[in-house]
Design goal:
single chain, 151 residues, alpha+beta, Ubiquitin-like (UB roll), DNA polymerase, domain 1, 2 domains, five-stranded mixed β-sheet, 5 helices, 5 strands, metal ion binding, 2Fe-2S-bd, 2Fe-2S-bd_dom_sf, oxidoreductase activity
Length: 151
């Protein structure tokens, strides 16, 4: 089936299987920041925005994204660079595999709640798994990012 998508502000036409997930489609189009981890809604590696809200693209059928704005980390490069620097400065980038999904969630949080408490940050990041850091470095990095964006 042919589907017309808008990804990072660019309209694209893709041919997909009826049961193809958005993650597969995005990676097929070269959006490699969207990663495959669990395919069970448990890790957050595949996090993208659909009309500004976070979704897990491993469980979202591509055809459902037609008529909506899909945003990947590639579409947020400048802001992502600042967040990446903040995360790295706080030691949250050990293996880096979880980083892209974590970043998509953190940038969405900033838009929804620019001055969250630590508990609100933790609640918003539920579902973004990191097997290396224990999350405290992510929390410090995100706090730092939120402060630097506001400055």
């Amino acid at each position: 089936m042919d589907v017309s998508l808008t990804v990072n502000g660019k309209k694209i036409q893709v041919s997909v299987e009826p049961d193809e997930m958005l993650l597969t489609t995005l990676r097929g189009q070269g959006y490699f920041s969207t990663r495959r981890g669990c395919d069970t809604l448990n890790c957050g590696l595949c996090t993208v925005w659909l009309d500004g809200k976070t979704i897990l693209s491993c469980s979202y059928l591509t055809y459902r994204a037609a008529g909506h704005e899909v945003t990947t980390l590639e579409g947020l490069a400048d802001e992502a660079a600042l967040l990446a620097d903040c995360l790295a400065a706080e030691g949250a980038d050990q293996c880096g595999y979880c980083t892209t999904g974590m970043m998509m969630s953190a940038m969405a949080l900033r838009r929804q709640n620019p001055n969250p408490t630590d508990e609100e940050i933790k609640d918003f990041l539920v579902g973004n798994l990191c097997r290396c850091t224990g999350y405290e470095s992510h929390l410090r990095g995100i706090r730092r990012y939120l402060q630097e964006v506001e400055a």
